[in-house]
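Hey, does this match?
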Amino acid sequence: MNDIIIFFIIILVSNGIILLKIDNLSKILNIFDYPKSKRKIHITPTPLLGGPIIFFNLVLFVFYFLFYENTILLKSFNFTEYKPFIYFLIAISTIFIIGLYDDKFEIGPIKRIILISIFIILFLIIDSTSVLNNINFPFTKINIEFNLGSKLF
């Protein structure tokens, strides 16, 4: 129990340090949202580090529970074995990296959608346990089955 408290204190302190230094970190990485269009409501460049901070916390969470409380880790993400969990981590990491790359270099929405779609299709082909086969609404007794079409969509 004390290990978990220490872990969360470390996360709080590291997040505090990151938030205090967010402007310096944004300058080093040069990741800003510049107000170039009419739909932007800010006037000055705004750091785009919200996603990396959330991703950093997810990585800390996964590493802590992987080494100290590995059964809780799988249950938290609703997995029963490690292989699909590792595929899931690779998938969300890749989508995060594509988004971060887009923030820095503005690859455009069409290219971003194509890249993410290709990656998701490859992910679902490699890990068939992540394919959505049906949705069950027990409170309405409705069960929607997707059959084979869900591998493509």
About this structure: The chain has six helices and four strands.
